[in-house]
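Hi all, long-time lurker, first post. I run a small reading group and we've been trying to get comfortable going from sequence to structure in the token notation. Rather than ask abstract questions, I figured I'd post a concrete chain and ask someone more experienced to write out its structure so we can walk through it together at our next meeting. Sequence below, copied exactly:
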Amino acid sequence: MASTDPSLLDITDKDVREKLSLWDRRGEPTAPLTDAQSDSVAEVRAAAEILPVPSELPIEDLCSLSSRSLHSPFSTTVPDSTEDVLLKGFQMLDMENARIETAQQFFSWFANLQTKMDLEEGEQYRWDIHFHSYQEQCDAILADVHAALDHLDTLQKQYLFVSNKTGTLHEACEQLLKEQAELVDLAESIQQKLSYFNELENINTKLNSPSLSVNSEGFIPMLSKLDDCIEYVSSHPNFKDYPVYLAKFKQCLSKAVHFMKSHIVNTMHNLTSQLTKRDPLGLANADNAFTLYYVKFRAAAPKVRTLIEQIEERADKIQEYHNLLEAVHQCYLDQRERLLSPSITSTITDLTSQNSKDHCALVRSGCAFMVHVCQDEHQLYNEFFSRPSPRLDELLEKLCLSLYDMLRPLIIHVIHLETLSELCGILKNEMLEDHVHNNAGQLGAFDAVVKQMLEDVQERLVYRTHIYIQTDITGYNPAPGDLAYPEKLEMMERIAQSLKEEQIKLLSQEASFSDVRLEDPGSRRSSTSSVTEASRMQASISPADLHGMWYPTVRRTLVCLSKLYRCIDRAVFQGLSQEALSACIQSLLKASDIILKNKTQVDGQLFLIKHLLIMREQIAPFHTDFAIKEISLDLKKTRDAAFKILNPKAVPKFFRLNSHNAILEFLLEGTPEIKEHYIDSKKDVDRYLKLSCEQFIQQQTHIFVGTLEELLAKVAALKTMAVEGGPTYNLSQQPWAQPAKINEIVTATYRVMKGKLPATLQSMSLYLANRDTEFILFKPVRVNLLLSVSK
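-- Answer (accepted) --
Happy to help. Here is the structure in token form:
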């Protein structure tokens, strides 16, 4: 098997079959067979198919036998396991599906089997040779590994020795570096702490230097160092010599503060001295006095502003700077007061002399002057300081009080309500609302003085209003012309009618010359329309509605209320309005009674109704409540208890030790009661108006149908007596119920209505001058007349 040609081993089973198939192919067979040869092959084939398997053939040599090729009479002699072994053998040879039908296929199969067996036999020897070679290599590698391990052990021992030595050296170095860093930090810390104490000598040297100036560049940095040193030493009371160094630093601070204070104070005093030398009496003329005062100080502000800023920055931290800032504020304000007080007093005196007869102009000019002073002082203060001071407002308030002291004696002697109300308007509207509210920060002091002045004016206004109500409304004695009704209205009606006729005549004349174009047509049309509108307005206004035709007390009351409404508080206005309206109503009732006596009852009633309507209409725009609460003390229970205790029968009760003790009963039952009641003058106007209208309606009804109502009353009385079971009377038998008598009464009634009704309507039109009002007032009269006539 070892001599087998290697080229044959490369031929596969497929190639063998293909080559064998070429032997007997029909076209060009490679090994053609004769017919006899073919028959011989067929016989051999048939004999080979039925030959039994030799019994001496080992099972493992069986191959290429499928289950189908073993169908022979002797197949029963082969055990069941043998077939499985053969099948597995063919599967191992990848020939489970192959068929051996010819000898050539068998030889080919056998050659393959032999080749594989040879290979399997030689494989064991080859593997043995390889294993020996591998073993030798592994032994060599193992020896090398042992040698390397020995070297590594030696190297590890040497490394551990060197590593221990190096680690010890590193630890020693690190410890030394750590100690060095700690020493360096300690030295720096000591140096830093000592630097604050070492600055003491340097600061002392600078402060004791004769060339030291607070305006020099090194002064402010020195202050910063001094502040830092004081702060540091104060925060470490555990240091050695802490009190000594703190006292020395404080002493240096006192010197620095003294230098700054001296410089600032001297600057302020020098400014004041320069200004007072120009005007020793402080009475410079008004044109340049204040300008000079402000210009000089503004020019000097940059010289001390930087120093003052440093003081303000430190004032909240160190008390010495706070005290210095207070002293600087006081010095500045004292110098300003020294300069301004004489000039302000002089200016106010000049204003008083110039406006001695015009109190309103005096108050307006004086307040405007003080507003400018306050604003200028605040602006000048901000040139020196950046932090506000309450002392500035105190100074300005003191300066404003000079105006108040000058004006108050004049205010408390003003007697005219018009002047007082105008003063209230000036102080309240022009000063407080226009000036103070728009600049509250600068005018805080002026605000307090103006409010005090306003309170004085309001108090004076309330007082004069009380007197005015008592003298000019309650105590008013009407002149004959004031009560000349209806003559005044008739005269004004005639005047209005004549004016209307003149207007109509003028319009007709203009229309007749319309062809003459002396002016622009548009302007002529506008003038014509304006004249027409004016004439229409004059015609629509009744004489009774003219302000000058009102009864004097009504006019005075409404004018007084209109002046008070925006000048005083709402609560005070309610009280005064109630008093004024009550007095006005009483004066109208008094005037109505006089007119009723001197003229007719209709004139008196319509006069009262018209003026009550005017009052109700005119007080409507006042958006306030005219009701006031009055508190009274009811002593009725006290009086009854006093009479009861003074009764001789109550003497034994004085000594009783129970609840019936007379003194105890007096204390419990005799307590006075406090009662509250509201007075509403607006409702009083409505109530009197309603009462006057009802009286007018009743009186007119009685005038027109009085006799007829008496007749109807008699008839109703007879009917009532008959219904109630009294004596029965025949109406036709009564002398006053005769047809002639009734006819006479009805005729007289119609005659009265026809004669007096037009006059009544004309009087209503003359007084009321409003068709709606006339209709409303006369409607109940007409209804009463219709009811009486219909009955």
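A couple of things your group might point at:
The chain has 23 helices and two strands.
Residues 57-79, 513-540 have pLDDT under 50 and may be disordered.
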